[in-house]
Each structure stands twice: as structure tokens, then as C-alpha cells.
Amino acid sequence: MQALLSAHDSVAQSDYGPVLPPLPDKLPDNEEAIRIVCLVKNKQPLEATIRKNEKTGNIFISRVIHGGLADRSGLLHPGDKLVEVNGQKVWGLQPEHVIQMLVQSQGNILFKVIPNTPQPTNSQPALYVRAMVDYSPLQDPAIPCSDAGMAFSKGDLLKIVDQRDIRWWQARKLHSASLCCGLIPSTNHKQRELWWSQPYQAHTCIRPCTKKCMKLFIYKELPSCYSCGVSSCHNTSATVYEEVVHYQRHIDDPPRLIVLIGPSGVGVNELRRRLIKINPNTYQRPISHTIRSQKMGEKNGREYHFVTKEVFAYMVVNHKFLEYGEHNGHMYGTSLDSVQDVLDNGKLCVIDLEPHCIHSVRTKKLKPYIIYVRPPSPACMKQTRKDPHFLSNRYIKRYFYDKDFEEIEEASRTMEAKYRQYFDCVIVNDDLQDSCMDLFTAIQHAQEEPQWIPASWFAPDHP
Ligand SMILES: Nc1ncnc2c1ncn2[C@@H]1O[C@H](COP(=O)(O)OP(=O)(O)OP(=O)(O)O)[C@@H](O)[C@H]1O
Question: Residue ranges of the Guanylate kinase-like domain (predicted)?
Fold first, then answer.
């Protein structure tokens, strides 16, 4: 009901349509085509930016943000020359001055503009991407106006609606209540790489902007203020956005690989073990390889593939493993072939993985669905973890200490900060039964519901 009322209010408030005054009788022949635009001022910002041509003194509309007031009016466009605001000529004025005029005006605002013709059309289809970095326009000194920018975090899904500006795209977040777009940096910026490559720290190589953007009806574009020389802050380039497509698994497609990730001790193995135990005909883990000797009761190919050091080394060198490492003085590894064996058996393959190995499974063939198992608060862990457990690197069983819970929480924070852009789903492992249920639901969701996956997993195979 509340949503309905709020929807009604926002529609009712949208009375910003043009109210055109009558045209003057005598128009000089040599006068450029002038458009008179009257907008009714309400609480929303106009969502446009202006810039001044310092040589000619002309003021132009440089951007109109999609979904904003100016855009919805359909009457103001990038490149339009602003001639008058409420009857006052703006030629030669500083943009701040124009902004003040807009702020001070009450009721209707009358713009006289010389339309930019022809209008560049936005012919590019919308692009969907996943953000691979965190971005805050408030900390980006290069953005023309931070108020027009849109902050995003790793893993956010963005719809890029306008790429006409080579440096600043317009995008909106999917699954967000706001329909309005904001500016985000394009991937074309050469110097961008320098900024993206240091997403976790303040970028000390860039001089902070001295001019402040004003959160007003119309924004003034700030000059770019990079002062960073390539030599002074070299860094590897990072992928900023990953193009994604909406993927609905076809019934004949192999099931997606289910990958569980979490800090040591959170319960990844327990959840996987329970899932397989409840439904062994549907789920299976791949059989790992090891160089340790076979124990009584173990069967080669059932508990492990027992191989020699030489065979193991050969597999490492030939990139057969998705992940391998040492445990209690012996080498263990999960091979791609063992995952394939599970799939060939018509089962759903569930593996746990160290996060730094995510790239080895992010392939078109495996189309992994990555589930992050997050610890609840240390207090909740203390409540739920009362039984002794095996320490991960030793065959020693002991109770959890308070210190363990804090360490798990800290490890989780670090892991999420670094890898959360890859997580398709997060399960908080508080109550074990609930978490098992959540895991079961997530896996069903992964196989049956449409999901955003990297577009590269959809690209045709190269011959
Ligand atoms: N939700 C839970 N409630 C109570 N106990 C749990 C829960 N989840 C896991 N445990 C217990 O916590 C202990 C550690 O779990 P588990 O061995 O699965 O951790 P892990 O994440 O696989 O870590 P490692 O990789 O170090 O083995 C086990 O004794 C397990 O039974």
C-alpha cells in the first residue's frame, strides 16, 4: 500500500512538462533557432552538467543524465548552447554563477537554448557488466562532477546505458530502487589504469581537486586534474568491468560446477559433506589425487587417486590440477579430469576451493557457481560451535577458542574484500541445518534460474 502511495506521489509530482510561452510575432531571419524550455522546479536535481568554453565565453550543456529531470523533459540535450536563464543572459558568466541563478529561481525556470544539431544518437545497445573494483566518485579527482557520479562496489551489476562519451559512461545499478543513472569511468581512459590499479588505498599520486562540485540543480563540470605521471605510479592494469549476460541453463547443458569458498574453520567441508550425504545420487565431490600412501580400508579411486611423486609432478607441470597444495606433509590436488568424471556420471559436482584458485575454474566449460560461506558473528559462532573439531593442518581434535572465532571473522573480512566480485551467492553458516537448506536452495537456483555469467562463457569457440 505504501509503495502504491509512494508511486502515486512520484507520478503526481512529475509536473515538469514544458509550458511554452507564446512565440514573439516578429522573429529576425538571421537569428539561430532558439528553443525556449520551461521546467517546473521541484525537489529533484536537474541532473545535467554544464561547461564553459573559455575561448568564446559560451555556456553549453555537456551531459544530461539518463532518467533525470532534464532527460525526462526531452528538451535539453548535450551540446545545447545555453543563452538565457530566466531572461538573464549567461554568455561569459562563470558556471558557478549560472548555478546560483538556478538555485535562486523559484517555480518555473525558463531556459533559452540554441539546440545542438544534429543530436548524436545513442545507437549502442545497453551493456551489462559486473564491477570488479570499488569506485567512489567522491574520491575520484578526475570526475567532471562527483555529484553526477555513481558509486559502486565489487560485484555490483551495472547496466551501461550510454557510452557516447569516450571517458564517462552513464550507468545504473541493477537490482536498485533508483532508475536514475550516474557517471562511471569508461574503460577507455588511458590514465584510468593507474587509478583502478590501486583500489584499496588513497591514490597519493593524484592531486586532490581544489574546486568543489556543488550539489545543485545543474552541475558544473570540473576540469580534470590528473597530475600523475606514468613513471611515478606504475602498476598492473586491473579489469574494471566484466561484461555479463543473462544465462538460463538449458536442460541438456551440463550442470554448473558448484564451488564452495570460505575461511578455514567456517564449515565449508561440513556443509559439503552433509549435502552429499543427504543426496548421494545427485551430488558428488571429485576424487582428489595424493602422493600419500594408501591406508588400510582405502581403495584407489574411491577415497583418493594414489599416485607417485613423479606422476603428481607431471600433472602439476601439465596444468592438470584446478588446485593443489600440501597437507600434513603430503601433496593433494583436485584435477579437472576428476571433476569431469563426476559430470560424466550425471551428477552435480561440488568442490571447495582456495579463493586464489578461482581463476582456474572460471571457464566456459565449468561455468562455476561460486557460493561464499560466511561466518556469523563471533558470539553466534561461540553459541553454535560447542563440539570439538579437527584442526585443519593436524589430526588433532580440540574445542574452538574465542580467538579462533575472531581469526575466522578477520580471515572472512580479508577474503571478501579481495574476492567478493566472484561470489554468486553468500550463505551465513550460523545454524547448521538452516545453512544446509540454504545451500540446497542456492544450488537449485544456480541450475534452474537465469543467472548473470561472464559474456566470455557464451562466446563461440575458436576453431
Ligand atoms: N553451523 C555449524 N554449527 C556447528 N558446528 C559447525 C557448523 N559448521 C561447521 N561446524 C563444525 O565446525 C568444525 C569445522 O568445520 P569444517 O571442518 O567444515 O571447516 P572448514 O571450513 O572446512 O575448514 P578447514 O578447511 O580448515 O577444514 C567442524 O567440527 C564442523 O562440524
Answer: 255-444
φ/ψ of 405, rounded to 5, equals -65, -40
Quick: pLDDT tens for 2-59.
Answer: 888 887 777 666 555 555 566 666 655 555 688 888 888 777 777 888 889 999 999 9
The top-level CATH class assigned to 250-457 is: alpha beta
**Interface predicted TM-score of the whole assembly (ipTM), two decimals:** 0.98
What confidence score (pLDDT) does residue 212 get? 32
Chain mean pLDDT for the chain:
83
Instruction: Write the class of the CATH domain 127-245.
Output: mainly beta
What is the model's pTM?
0.79
pLDDT, tens digit, 9 for 90 and up, residues 351-396: 999 999 999 999 999 999 999 999 999 999 999 998 877 777 666 7
Q: Which residue has the least CA distance to atom 31 on ligand 1?
A: 270
> Given the CA of residue 389, which atom of ligand 1 is nearest to it?
29
What residue type is assigned to position 276 of the chain? I
| Among 261, 270, 323, 437, residue to substitute to test ligand 1 (most atoms within 8 Å of Cβ) | 270
Task: Give the pLDDT confidence score for residue 232 in this predicted structure.
Answer: 31
pLDDT digits (tens, 9 = 90+) for 138-166: 998 888 888 889 999 999 999 999 998 88
Q: How far is CA 385 from CA 261, 265, 410, 438, in A?
A: 19, 10, 17, 19
Question: Phi/psi class of residue 344: alpha, beta or left (left: φ > 0; alpha: ψ in -120 to 50)?
Answer: alpha
Domain ranges of the chain: 127-245, 250-457
Q: Which amino acid is at 56?
A: T
Nearest-CA residue for ligand 1 atom 5 is 385
Ligand 1 neighbours, Cβ below 6 Å, are 262, 264-270, 384-385, 387, 389, 392, 429, 432, 435
Give the Cα separation of 424 and 21 in Å (integer).
54
CA of 267 to the centre of ligand 1 (A): 3
Ligand 1 pocket test target in 261, 389, 401 with most atoms within 8 Å of CB? 389
